[in-house]
Amino acid sequence: MKKVMFSLLMFLAFAPFSYAEGDIVVRDAWVREVPPGASVSAAYMTIENKGSQVDKLTALSSDAAENVEIHMSNVDENGIAKMERIKTLELPAGESLELKPGGMHVMLIGLKESLIGIESVTMNLSFEKAGDMLIKVPVKSMKSSGEVHHH
Ligand SMILES: [Cu+2]
């Protein structure tokens, strides 16, 4: 019984924060909870390429949104935040890319339902070499994630 409890605690503590497919590891993924009626949200994660060759993230999809894109947020010389779409995200060999608020992020466009009260959304990442990776992305409330996403 003790062992079962321990396993359950370990599961709650560590799952499902890390996914691996081929040489690619995705961890700490989360999606920002947005108010009801919002049509977009953003997701963040760390993508590591443990291999010795470059891989590329070429496509994304989710059951929660019509379109899923990779964006880069930049603040221009006038202090205005702008986003640029990155169609193919290069993953250099042996490196980790951190997608985080204020920088690179996954954009969920055309949300199909409110994210409030949902524990996680499903997302599929397609890598050129590693292939498809299906991940569960926990929804986190705005309070716990801090900064506002600018559009
Ligand atoms: Cu964006």
What features would you describe in this structure?
The protein has about 150 residues and is mainly beta. It has one domain (about 20-140): PCu(A)C copper chaperone (Immunoglobulin-like), CATH 2.60.40. It contains two helices and eleven strands, in the order αβββββββββββα. Strands 1, 2, 3, 4, 5, 6, 7, 8, 9, 10 and 11 form an eleven-stranded mixed beta sheet that branches. Strand 2 (about 25-30) and strand 3 form a beta hairpin. It is globular, with a radius of gyration of 16 Å. The model has no long low-confidence stretch (mean pLDDT about 90). The site of copper (II) ion has 5 residues, from strand 9.
- Rounded to the nearest angstrom, the distance between the terminal CA atoms is 51 Å
The helix fraction, in percent, is 10-25%
| Overall average pLDDT | 88
Structural class, please? Answer: mainly beta
How much of the sequence is in beta strands?
over 45%
- Looking at how many chains there are and whether they match, the oligomeric state comes to single chain
- Please identify, by name, the CATH architecture: Sandwich
Task: State the shape.
Answer: globular
Number of strands: 11
Task: Tell me the number of structural domains.
Answer: 1
Report on the biggest sheet: 11 strands, mixed
Poorly predicted ranges: none
Q: State the order of secondary-structure elements, H for helix, E for strand.
A: HEEEEEEEEEEEH
* CATH fold group: Immunoglobulin-like
CATH class: Mainly Beta
Bound molecules: copper (II) ion
